[in-house]
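Hi everyone, sorry if this is the wrong subforum. Our group has a chain we'd like a structural model of before ordering constructs, and none of us has done structure prediction before. Sequence below.
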Amino acid sequence: MLELKINNSDKILAILSEMAKVTRHREPLMRDIAGTMRKAVLDNFEAGGRPSWAGIHHRSGIPLNDSGNLKGSIQQVSDNDKAIVGTNEAYAAIHQFGGVITPKKGKYLVFKIGDRWVMTDKVEIPARPFLMLTPQDEEDILQDVQDYWQSILK
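Answer:
Right subforum, don't worry. Here is the predicted structure as tokens:
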């Protein structure tokens, strides 16, 4: 039979006890993770996508950055069990996943581009995923976890 003896068991037991307590209170970790994810999403807007989003045909500028409404709607929520970043803007999904917009009533969509009116039977919106993480963002989240555990084990 193999036996393991720990000479400094008081310190180890104290650490294990603290880990058990703290892992029941994970909200600080989830808050940090949500903050890191939100920063990543805002970085996506600043960079015009990571990787770059499809361009805009009828004007110049960075896609999804004109009014700042979508970027400004990005919120983070966290509790003991989850870290969430998202938006409640109705049009966010068409930009995230792409799709085709067709008229609800009538034959054509009618909208203004610059100073002229346009009529078309559909508008194809390319996917411009803004709710995404890069490998570096994932590393940053792992760093949040490491920092959390290091703060516990001090």
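For your construct planning: Residues 11-94+129-152 form one domain. The chain has one domain: 11-94+129-152.
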